[in-house]
Write a structure and sequence with these properties.
With 278 residues, the chain is α/β, with parallel strands linked by helices. Helix content is 37%, strand content 18%. It contains ten helices and seven strands. The protein has helices spanning 2-19, 31-35, 47-55, 72-79, 91-103, 139-149, 166-174, 191-198, 212-219, 225-237; strands at residues 62-66, 83-88, 109-112, 125-131, 150-161, 202-209, 245-251. It has a seven-stranded mixed sheet. The model is unreliable at 262-278 (pLDDT under 50).
């Protein structure tokens, strides 16, 4: 527990420094950026757009932005008509999230809270939406809290960095990333961890995107269409283990007596309407 508290303090301090670089002129949601996330196609390549594709139309739904940061996704969710509540550990980023929504004339509720103890009542949300948050957290504790605050039949949508190949894990150890945007305690997830998080839910759909070389070229600013097509073909036909991102969607069962079968259930991307009969 002491280690957890120390890592929280480190994350809060890193976020405080990050927040200093976010000026008011960066808070406006442009029409061009907003349009990218309005009903994106199911075959879109960017993992964030795919997460919004899976989400579908959230108008009128209670949505928890789980680990909202500075509100980059909260503002899009609110613009799409969702009733957004955001939580984050960082007071500085939560203040920026509030300013971002005010600047864009939108409404959402934000508070500083732990991902393990959000403070919301049981069965509060139709959707839990989290982008690159679980790999900062204790998977079991996070899963319990997300499950608790979702309504029966509610959906959980997450997009996370993932590394399954041993060679990629080895490279990370021998050549660790030195990046101010990377927290000391964060590590990409693996299939075992995602399965552990998903175990109490009904599994609906998932998609892995981007190879290590695609990520490398992307960071260098080189994003030709042929590279995306090759990435998609390679991950889809050769090995998903090379992917560095995964988007997955889960559902809280309608019935408390439902038990996981170990079999994934498919769903049509672009809808979050729960299916009765669990």
């Amino acid at each position: 527990m002491e280690h957890t508290r120390q890592s929280d303090l480190e994350e809060i301090e890193r976020s405080r420094i990050d927040a200093q670089s976010i000026t008011d002129d960066k808070l406006e949601l442009t029409e061009q950026n907003f349009r990218k996330y309005v009903c994106p196609p199911a075959d879109c390549r960017e993992f964030l757009r795919y997460a919004f594709s899976v989400l579908g139309n959230p108008r009128g739904l209670e949505v928890l932005d789980y680990g909202c940061g500075a509100g980059e996704n909260s503002v899009i969710l609110a613009a799409l008509g969702a009733k957004v509540s955001g939580i984050d550990l960082s007071p500085d980023l939560v203040e920026i999230a509030k300013r971002r929504l005010d600047r864009n004339g939108l409404e959402a509720s934000f508070k500083v809270a732990s991902a393990y103890e959000t403070g919301f009542p049981d069965d509060s949300f139709d959707v839990a939406f989290g982008i690159a948050i679980l790999h900062h957290l204790d998977i079991e504790r996070a899963a319990r809290e997300v499950y608790r605050v979702l309504k029966p039949g509610g959906s959980a949508i997450f997009a996370e960095p993932i590394r399954d190949l041993r060679i990629l894990k080895w490279l990370r150890k021998v050549a660790p990333v030195r990046d101010s945007n990377v927290s000391p305690g964060e590590y990409p997830l693996n299939r075992v961890q995602i399965n552990a998080f998903s175990s109490r839910f009904v599994r609906l759909t998932s998609r892995r995107t981007m190879s290590p070389w695609g990520r490398l070229f992307g960071r260098a600013g080189y994003n030709p269409a042929w590279l995306y097509r090759f990435d998609e073909w390679f991950i889809g036909n050769i090995s998903k283990r090379f992917a560095v991102n995964e988007v997955f969607m889960l559902r809280k069962p309608w019935s408390a007596t439902w038990k996981p079968t170990g079999r994934s259930r498919s769903a049509v991307a672009g809808t979050i309407l729960p299916v009765r009969g669990d």
